Structures are given as structure tokens and as C-alpha cells.
Amino acid sequence: MTETKMEGGGPDPRAILQRIADTWMIDPGKAYWQEDGPEGFHAFSWWPGDFCLKSRANPHEAYADPAVRIRIDTDFIRGIDVRSETLSPLLASMAHLYTSTYAWVFMPADVQDTFGDEAFKDHDPTRFWLSATAYIREETAGWLPEFFARMAILQPINAQIQAGELAQLLHAEPDTSPDPSDPQAPLDEILGVLGQVIIPIGKEPSRWEDCEEFVKFAETWGRSDICFGMGDPTGLTLETPFGNDSALIRFLTDQTHPQLGNGLLATLQLPVLGDKHEISKLTNELNYLEANMWTGFPLLGCWHSREIGENYAAAFSLFVPNALHQPMIATNVAFWMLNRAQWVKSSRFEHLENRPMIEILNRRLGVTNGAPVNT
User: Fold this and answer.
1) Would you call 221 helix, strand, or coil by DSSP?
2) Least confident stretch, 80-94, 115-129, 136-150, 196-210
3) What is the pLDDT of residues 172-185, one digit of tens each?
4) C or N: which end of the chain has fewer Cβ atoms within 10 Å?
5) How far from 181 is each of 75, 189, 195, 243, 370, CA to CA, in Å?
6) C-alpha to C-alpha distance for 185 and 179, rounded to whole angstroms
7) Which comes out higher in pLDDT, residue 138 or 145?
8) E strand or H helix that includes residue 241
């Protein structure tokens, strides 16, 4: 294994990116490296098909545990109208059906208006891309880079499959580009992993059935002020404070993904209800912020809207296919979801003061739905 520790402590960003490239079995001549950014910055671009994939690594030593943020983006569609009244609701309602291990991301009109055209003179504001992030620390450096790479490879696979149809729906065009050194290069064999490996294994029963981690997590962490949980061998339900109410986290093993088959579905639903325009605006902004900000937890999955009666709720969904099953994935995803809920609360609803879970549960009186909240 490539050495992944820097001399000054913490993971080595260049070595981590190389491990990701090795996981994808990239021909060294096809990875175009860039190392002229800020100190510690490393990146490479790769064309496994018609869409450019960009992998970037940035270290951050402001925390007690030095970490490296890995971000993987894949070009997808260009020419979208971010000011269209139908764009956000449409994408927010469709995202969970098309995505699984990454987010749909575009720059919201509000962001462009806040900073002005000059700030984005080198950025195409009509771009719509696929994005995922991971934070590599010393304790996760042994397994997370490869797991992250295998989750992220679905980006260029689905760009190849979905961009044409979705671009037509959005009155835009696929954001394709040629490999600089070989414009006529055939599709990389790695794109066949979906049909050759992931889908066949997805036809087997969920490999998270009878998962001991569900019960263990609930017993260990689900009786505290910040988390209440109940688990059995088939799934896990967690609640974490969100002001006077709670965000709901669920792990399901009996939900079949329309593309990937069986595996592990993890969802987060905020107690934030509104109409489809309010909620879609919020969820699309959350995807953009998670892709671009240092949050400390991975972006593997996508924010989207969920219809709740006459209202809509803000939700996040992540699906891990059977082919990527390994011990402790469910446990790590549970912590990521808990951190995600608290990040949203502190960054977007800072006026809310969290109450202890026992107080929330005692006052609930059997009511679990949130009330409409201004977003």
C-alpha cells in the first residue's frame, strides 16, 4: 500500500489520490496531475468516457486530528437555467431516484447574486455536475480512500448513462469533453463495473441483513442527549435533536435501489416542512454547500425533497450497494448522518436551540411530524 502519512503528521494527500487512481486502475498516462495550487493541494483529471472526472485533495490542520478533504466531481450537464422556477423542484424531487453515492450540484442563483458576476468570471454558472467528498484521517486512512473511490466511480458511469436524457429534459446539453491526449479513446473498462459486478451482486439479498452493528449502535450511542435509537438485525432508527424537534435517521435493508439492487439505504429527514419551492431551494443549496465547504463528514448521497402530505420535507439519501459491503460501514454512516443533521442545524437554523432528546421524547405525545418552518 502507498504510504499515506505526511512527515509532519496526518495523511498524505498526494498518496491518497494515488490510491484512488490505483483503485480505478487508471493508466498512468491518462491521469493528468495538477500540483500548482495552494500548499498541500493535489489534483488529477481523468476521462474514463465522455465526461471529465476531477479528483482533488486539500489538507486541513486546524483541527486536533489533521485531515485531508478529497473531492471528486464529474462533468454532467451544461446550459441549465438556474433561475427557472421549475428547475429546483424538478431536480430536488428526482435526485434520490437517479443518485445513490454522490450529489447533484449546481450553483444556486442566490449564491451568484450574493458574490456577483466578477467572483465567478472563470466559472460557468450554467454547469450542473456530480460531486462527492470524503475526509481522510489517520484512523480512517486504511480503508476509506478505496471505499470512497468505489462509491465515486458511479459518477462517470451514470454521467455516461443519464446525461443525454436528463439534458434534454432540462433543455440543456451533456457536458462532454475529449481526453486531451487521445480524443478518440474508447470507454475505459472500469465503466463496465456496474453491469459486470454491482448489478449482479445487487440481485442477492442485502448483505446488511442480520447486521450486528444496528443493535450495537443503538445500545451504545442511542441513549444520550444527542441521540435516541432503536435497532434490530434488519435496520436502525435514530433521532437527534433539531431545536425542539428531532431529525429522523433510518437504515433499511429491504429497499431495492432502482439501478443498484439490494444493499443498505440510509436516510435523514429534517423536521422542516414547506412547499416544494421552499424545500427544493433548501436542498439544492445544501448539496452545493456540502460539496464546497469543509464539513468534516463525507458527502456520499444527495439532498432532495420528500412529499409529506400536503407539504414537503428536506431529506438526504445514501445507498451502499451490496458489492461495497464491509464491516463498520453502517456504524460510520450513522455517525456521518448524525453530524450532517447537526451541521444543517448550526449552519442554516442557528436560531434554534437544541433540547435534550429525553425532553423532546417526553413532550412528543405520539406526534412525530415536524411543523412548517421558514427556510
Assistant:
1) helix
2) 115-129
3) 999 999 999 999 99
4) N
5) 18, 18, 28, 54, 54
6) 7
7) 145
8) strand 235-242
